[in-house]
Fold Glutathione hydrolase.
Amino acid sequence: MHHTEHNSQPAKGVQQKLQSSNSAAKKLGKNDVRTASTSTQQVRVLNWMKFIAVFLGAFTSVAWYKLGGFEGIFGSGKKTSHFLQKLQQVEDQGIWSSLSSILWPSSSNSLDINGTNLVPLTFEDPIRYRNKGNQQLTVSGRNGIVAAEAEECSQVGVDILREGGNAVDAAIAAGICIGAVNSFSSGIGGGGFMLVRLPNGTSTTFNFREKAPAAAHKDMFKNDPLAAQIGGLSVAVPGELAGYESAWRMYGSLPWRKLFEPTIKLMRDGMPMPVELASRIRWPQFEYFKTDPVWGKVFAPKGRFLRAGERFTRPELAYTLEEVATHGIDTFYRGDIARQLVNFVQKNGGILTMEDMANYTVRIEEPLRASFDGREVLTCGRPCSGEALVLGLNVLDRMDLSVGEGILHADDPMTDVGVHRLIETMKWISAGRTILGDPLDIDNSALVNHILSSEYADSVRANISDERTYDYTHYNAIYDVPDQHGTTHLSVIDKDGMAVALTATINLMFGSQLMEPKTGIVLNDHMDDFSLPGVVNFFGLSPSPFNFIAPGKRPQSSAAPTIVVNNGDVEMVLGASGGSRISTAVLDTLVKKYRWNRSLRDSVESPRYHHQLLPSIVYIDETVEPEVVKVLEKFGHVVDYVPVQFPFSEIQAVYREEGMLYGISDSRKQAVAAAF
């Protein structure tokens, strides 16, 4: 692996060793594990308590969920249940229409995408799972395909392909579009990772993760942890534009300006307010946007939030993109835009400097490689979470997921034991993530190489019981890691077989909640992705020293952009948004497609499993069949449902088979792919 920068000094004094993976699992008595059915019932009761409390609050001015200790049950701040947050939103709709949209979402599935072939839905291929968007359209074409989280941006990418651009051009153009349209999840004020595979087999990753400013230190949030999430101190040095330019210079084919023009036009001339964006700005914590002079100008120009379909513009951002398109990224990192951003961040308590901006560099690296189901799987390494995904693939590649009884019918390849083994593997990879960190800041290669070894995979398989699950101590987690959020992902394959998997993010929704007024740039809050010393979690795990703040360091990310290669050709490109749920979402999708023989659409749209070890709960979409829940409880798993209105991971996937390209954008984010 090679890097284009080596500007961080290795941290000293960290001599932690991974616990032996071959040690015998801790023996647990009957009283050490809660009865799964009882625990699951308790979770369901709490969800109904949330619903009733907010239902009452919809008719009164009383915040019922805050009475009698309910706030402690539901959580507060960024931990507040998405279910709770959404139920409070009745503005512009009225209580009955709001509740009906939550409980009985629209079943419409008809969309017109210019130039895109929609795979017909036949009687034998019904829409089974009623997720939020309900489009669930698989698109197809022969010349190129883009799966992004907004229909407009998928189309922007395809238009670039149609005009002679390649997959890198299309990914950059679509990424710029997503940052403007879905500004709650990404944008040029953030960073990310891009994985590129050329038709000749050459593969490259571009690491443009945000960096801690030079004045940052590990104790900077000791007295105010919330400052890592909101405000100027939470802002890390953005890397997205630098990453896009590096990829374009190496592999792009169209003029730089051409990649910006579609989004400039959308933001300058206006577009219909996207449904997902209209929903996100109505979350309770963003109520102040309506009266804020900066946010309100964009999202509430008439004193109320824009409704879906109303004209939406961002002229300041359009001007900024015009400047970058015309003058290149120097204006962003060394020129007028940099000065505006630095001054704004510092006025809001931050430590970002012009030197921080000017010194930003992109790391160009070799991808990680794994084998799964006879295929080569490519992903990106630290501070990406590719190592966690590779660990999961190493375990499952030599594990039979067809043993046991079919869950939905006798011949169902998704078996009870197979699902249990998948979830147990998720718990192991979540434990493995706790030792990851920026490799140029701290050398823990020996530990990482150990968990990626075949011997470690063997020991994990040996410690997975086909009869039960275990307490978290069984899985050798040494440290705690921050629960990460946000993100966008898009996947592209062009007519020549070039493939791109791009994951970008500003972290929490709307990042630091700072929008620079002159440029229209929403700034990230990625300082929150670092671990903070001295904060021991509820389960007694200390924060990971591998992810402590240091000057110039890049925080550990959950991103896992992925490309699957079969017989020398790209077969599938996928990735996810959803913070800590990304690696498990990608693993879940790969297992469904390649081991359980699901269609591309069902692999993405069917109920998704997630377990992050702590808390000890299997999260799954509420569209799940009751038979699946019974199976999980049989093994001792505690189950909680993810409401369709508030999914926490979304997959964008494209697939190539016999000369045809197929793609689907996850309807959980009301997304639609495009092809030609």
